């Protein structure tokens, strides 16, 4: 029988039961490989309950540094009888199945084209531990120990991680090290090792950091000057506010007095949280909320108020599957339309699309600047894949002396000098009016903030011309925003082509790998990564330069494609949908197959394989 042979290039998936303590053990495994200098890209796939349902943890090990999902599993660690059949079916031919062999399974539960490694994990743990909880928790560490021998993962790297995790807790440290070596010793005595897939020390990680997007966005808010956060817990965004509080407690407490220079409020619901943020923004504070699609739905009336009253607000939307409560622990890019046009009436909002935690940090700070400068709500559009999964990325950087862009705020001195103040008056031709902050001047610069129509001086009015002036000025401001938002990134093909592809956000790492595979098969595409809406002029130019453009996104209804058609008045026939929406992150194989099948519908040959330094050996 053939077997997969690969060094530093494979995908391993753990199938566990939620609440069994497996997630921390699986993360430990991934981090140990990272400590050996080999890039990893882990993804935690978990259910929306506390415990009992299936959960998976997928780790891609790739010295080439590909951080997107590849598709296909080379080794399955099958610890959940409920999902056994589906887990075994996922394995590539020649792959490896590791399982708890304490209870024998009938032959029909296995496949003839895979390699089976059985280890009596339950029996081992029952012999050593008497406490039921310890038996369960340490079983996870035992299989990590077994895998460290089978795959040649350095045990010293794992023990170093234990030492950091349990510093000052020597009893816990010793018991975890014991469980690790229980697994290692059993494999050395009873099983053939190593397998065909192994890990070798390398130096491909460099200076990159390993962090999740929610933590990165929270730190970006701290550096970007946010002092107020109001939120209501909702998966997968809750850890944004939690991380913000953690960072503020270290960076925003006066060392002399102990006074907190920040305010974090867990509101009674999403409506209250956005209301608090609008109030804080009106008062001059940099404020944000973090939520997901259902929260945005509840916030829309306040979002409309902030848009029309022109109040700075930053909203971090960590997208998940929908509609309704949908799949709260699965990823999608399905809030694009609802956020772009959030609220009733004619609205258009600024959206930022970070591709990784590094850009989550940068774009969070940028969103706060843009909200102030444009006096409007700004959405940071991440998703569960970026937000809750740790990923390698470039280190965060902050320019020394960088200030905050507060936009057009009129001072007391300017008011005292007699400068004309019309709160909603376009005096500079960019659609952005001047504002004052409460208390700026004792008698000048005050105005009514209202959601109803007014004239340029904030005086109540239901006159048609006043309404038209306001909403057309808001459009002019939106056009101004196109030059201020993060600009798209062009990745040109190796040779001239009339084919293009547009992508954004968490789709990026898989898209980059797919482009390499397509080019190797003779399919060249110019690629444009969108980073913001409104679309800068370069997006329209890219579309004009290509006869056919694929739009790759993770939702059912091609929402980004619809936005391009609606805003740029593009012929829909020129934009080809590539849609992935089953809740799992998109894979390079999926993108490659979809584009190849569209361009070569009559070809008998399969889509080009994702390049891998591997071979099938007898």
From TrEMBL:
Name of the protein described by the UniProt record: 2-oxoacid:acceptor oxidoreductase subunit alpha
Pfam families for the chain: POR (PF01558), POR_N (PF01855)
CDD domains: TPP_PYR_PFOR_IOR-alpha_like
Tagged with keyword Protease: no
Annotated organism of origin: Caenimonas terrae
Domain Pyruvate/ketoisovalerate oxidoreductase catalytic residue range list: 19-184
Positions of the Pyruvate flavodoxin/ferredoxin oxidoreductase pyrimidine binding domain: 221-384
PANTHER family named in the record: BLR6743 PROTEIN, PYRUVATE-FLAVODOXIN OXIDOREDUCTASE-RELATED
